[in-house]
């Protein structure tokens, strides 16, 4: 058994295709298939169920895949650690970013990090905070920018970047635009655009209305800020969003909500043995003026 065989198994499992896996690994399909068959003979069990149109992991393959990923990660970390000891940080840095990051300037941080560590390959993902926490635990991500309601316990390996009370966002011609401050009760009868029900991006607003004993209607759900703001701009709904999400947009206005929900933004990283690249990124964010710091 060798590392290329492990990489081939991971590629086939993720691509669900020997053809696509071979292209991803830059080998001919016959060579990849031969190596996986040799590995299956060594193990004594098939890793994949194959037809001409379909490829799926067997029970043995599913068990093997988890350990193969750990082995590949360990090998990569060995190389990264040796490079770091020699004064150069290498490897990959995977970063999860929620759609409503306001605490740090992501492009500026990436520019600075890339300048300091040009040998690191950076992979960015956007998504939801709860999924990112699971990915950090499973080592599918190195670091993540997260947002949670103030009442939610923070991730174990994390630092607070910013606390914000959400603002009401409405079209510039909406009656709310003429008000300096409002209460949740003033918004309860308005239609809302928000993130999907059950998501961390939605949780703080739902919880705030529930605690205030108020009901609201959310006829529009979207996974990105741009779509939510476009719905608001069209005048068919309002939203509750963090300050700084709509800078300079002439089509919308923001209004303070005195009893509005508070969102806490965190920088989080893998608690167990973070990579040199992850540590360097956390240190960079700390040096850029936030309160984040490495474990």
From TrEMBL:
Transmembrane segments: none annotated. PROSITE patterns: HTH_LYSR. SUPFAM superfamilies: Periplasmic binding protein-like II, Winged helix' DNA-binding domain. Pfam families: HTH_1 (PF00126), LysR_substrate (PF03466). Keywords: DNA-binding, Transcription, Transcription regulation. Residues 1-58 form the HTH lysR-type domain. CDD domains: PBP2_LTTR_like_3. Belongs to the LysR transcriptional regulatory family. This is LysR family transcriptional regulator. It comes from Microbacterium nanhaiense.
């Amino acid at each position: 058994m060798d590392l290329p065989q492990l990489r081939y198994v991971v590629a086939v499992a993720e691509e669900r295709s020997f053809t696509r896996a071979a292209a991803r690994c830059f080998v001919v399909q016959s060579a990849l298939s031969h190596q996986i068959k040799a590995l299956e003979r060594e193990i004594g069990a098939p890793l994949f169920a194959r037809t001409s149109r379909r490829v799926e992991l067997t029970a043995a393959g599913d068990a093997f895949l988890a350990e193969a990923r750990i082995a590949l990660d360990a090998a990569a970390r060995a190389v990264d650690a040796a490079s770091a000891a020699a004064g150069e940080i290498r490897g990959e840095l995977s970063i999860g970013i929620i759609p409503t990051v306001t605490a740090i300037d992501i492009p500026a941080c990436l520019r600075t990090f890339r300048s300091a560590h040009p040998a690191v390959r950076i992979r960015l993902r956007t998504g939801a905070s709860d999924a990112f926490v699971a990915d950090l635990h499973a080592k599918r991500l190195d670091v993540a920018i997260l947002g949670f309601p103030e009442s939610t316990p923070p991730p174990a390996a994390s630092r607070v970047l910013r606390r914000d009370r959400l603002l009401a966002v409405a079209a510039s011609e909406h009656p709310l635009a003429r008000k300096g401050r409002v209460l949740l009760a003033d918004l309860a009868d308005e239609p809302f655009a928000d993130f999907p029900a059950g998501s961390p991006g939605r949780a703080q607003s739902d919880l705030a209305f529930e605690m205030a004993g108020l009901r609201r209607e959310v006829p529009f759900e979207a996974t990105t800020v741009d779509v939510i703001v476009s719905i608001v701009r069209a005048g068919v709904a309002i939203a509750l969003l963090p300050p700084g999400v709509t800078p300079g947009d002439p089509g919308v206005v923001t209004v303070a909500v005195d009893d509005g929900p508070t969102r806490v933004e965190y920088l989080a990283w893998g608690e167990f043995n973070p990579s040199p690249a992850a540590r360097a990124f956390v240190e960079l964010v700390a040096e850029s003026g936030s309160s984040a710091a490495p474990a």
